[in-house]
Amino acid sequence: VSTQSTGSVIMTFHNAARSALLRSVTSVIEQTPPELLSDIILVDDCSDDENTGKLLRALDPRIKLLRNYKREGLVRSRIYGALNAQGPVLTFLDSHIECNKEWVQPLLQQLKAKPRGIVSPIIDPIKADSLDYRVASSNIKGGFTWALHFTWVALTEKDKAARTKESDPIVTPMIAGGLFSVEKEWFFRSGSYDTNMDIWGGENFEISFKNWMCGGYLYIMPCSRVGHIFRKKHPYTFPDGNGKTYSMNTKLVAEVWMDKYKELFYQNRPSARFSEIGDISGRIKLREDLQCNDFQWYLDNIYPELHIPQTTLVTVSQEGWCLDSMGGGDTPVGLYKCHGSGGNQNWKVDSANKKVQQNDDCLTVAETGLLLLDCQTGNMNQQFELNTEFHSLYNSYHNVCITITNPRNRAVGVGDCKAQQWDIKEV
């Protein structure tokens, strides 16, 4: 890699653990050849203790510290860092990572050969409780569910056949978003990030769809490895709540980039319909100015194996009381007064897979009642069929239907299919 490919590393943080931040910055300095690193931009997103970043400046003269004096979130903080970066290549890293040996060379080499795109390392997991470094598989790529949750998926046989050697780039429909490199010129010419997005979440969908649809590419470079601490929960707060913020951010993605397929997003994340997202005309114009392909092109050419479900969105009610997820998890599904606002009372019926869902969770027969749990392929306790003729939701494995088990407290479970009929209406 020539000195022309020098890059800037950008890390944003808010109330980060000093030990994790120190480990991250030190690994960048120690594992990156000096001639390939022009500067390290640390963006303190209004942490409670502003000394956290200041202490790190003593590590290396190339470290530049920026601070937000109000909470801006990941997207706006990364743009702030990018605007102040000196290198022609921007490498965005989370603040809880560890760079492995020769991690940056494959990223810079690929961008020098093919500038208009984004490249990501293999992300090795670091255990949050012990900090043990594990090696991740190099036979996976990034994907997503229709609720716009990122997921890792196995390479298809076509993917494997397209690679002649292990070091060949992995073409990926989606990046995880925390760790990637991009040429600074392309990053800003292609619209950087959507600054309407708040705090964290959804930005990887926008930048992934945009790059593929607007003339770029996404590769995972198997010879580049960076460890990442996968935390069990966010160590910081969301001013408007995690769920509300994520729904707003992903709705921005759906409305700008997903065309008619945004309806599948709303079926899987019904609460997002009511999220306030503000003016999106600027992003629509960006898509027009870049002469981007449509989302159908993305599905046909980049992610053809993604399952497109044949689903129906319904409400299930009886005498003004609706089947309601009651928040899901360990709380059994019950009845709540019908409010017509969707959310917990809208159910997605996937006829092909015999599932009744909200987001990525499925109605599940359990000893404690009817629960909303993670959907699992082959779980017969989750196999429900909609029967509009008999006004029922039927589980063939147990030969039972959803019924009201206790009218006094409006408890719902399963029982004799002749016990009740439901008013099932498409939304």
Question: In words, what does this structure look like?
Answer:
With 427 residues, this protein is α+β, with helices and mostly antiparallel strands. 24% of the residues lie in helices and 30% in strands. The chain has 11 helices and 23 strands. Strands 1, 2, 3, 4, 5, 6, 9, 10 and 11 form a 9-stranded mixed beta sheet that branches. Strands 12, 13, 14, 15, 16, 17, 18 and 23 form an 8-stranded antiparallel beta sheet that branches. The mean pLDDT is 90.
Key traits:
eight-stranded antiparallel β-sheet, nine-stranded mixed β-sheet, 427 residues, alpha+beta
Q: Name the beta content range.
A: 25-35%
The biggest beta sheet reads: 9 strands, mixed
Extended strand count: 23
pLDDT average, as an integer?
Answer: 90
Number of helices: 11
Work out the oligomeric state of the chains in this entry. single chain
Low-confidence stretches: none
C-alpha Rg, in Å? 24 Å
Calculate the terminal CA-CA distance, rounded to whole Å.
56 Å
* Broad shape: elongated
Helix percent band: 10-25%
Structural class assignment:
alpha+beta
Task: Give a topology summary.
Layout: E1 7-13, H1 18-31, E2 37-45, H2 51-56, E3 63-68, H3 74-83, E4 89-93, E5 97-99, H4 105-113, E6 118-126, E7 140-144, E8 150-154, H5 157-162, E9 170-171, E10 180-183, H6 184-189, H7 203-213, E11 218-229, H8 242-257, H9 262-268, H10 281-289, H11 295-301, E12 311-318, E13 321-324, E14 334-337, E15 347-350, E16 355-358, E17 361-366, E18 369-374, E19 385-387, E20 392-395, E21 400-406, E22 411-415, E23 423-426
Parallel strand pairs: 1-2, 1-4, 2-3, 6-11
Antiparallel strand pairs: 4-10, 5-11, 6-10, 7-8, 9-11, 12-13, 12-15, 12-23, 13-14, 15-16, 16-17, 17-18, 19-20, 20-21, 21-22
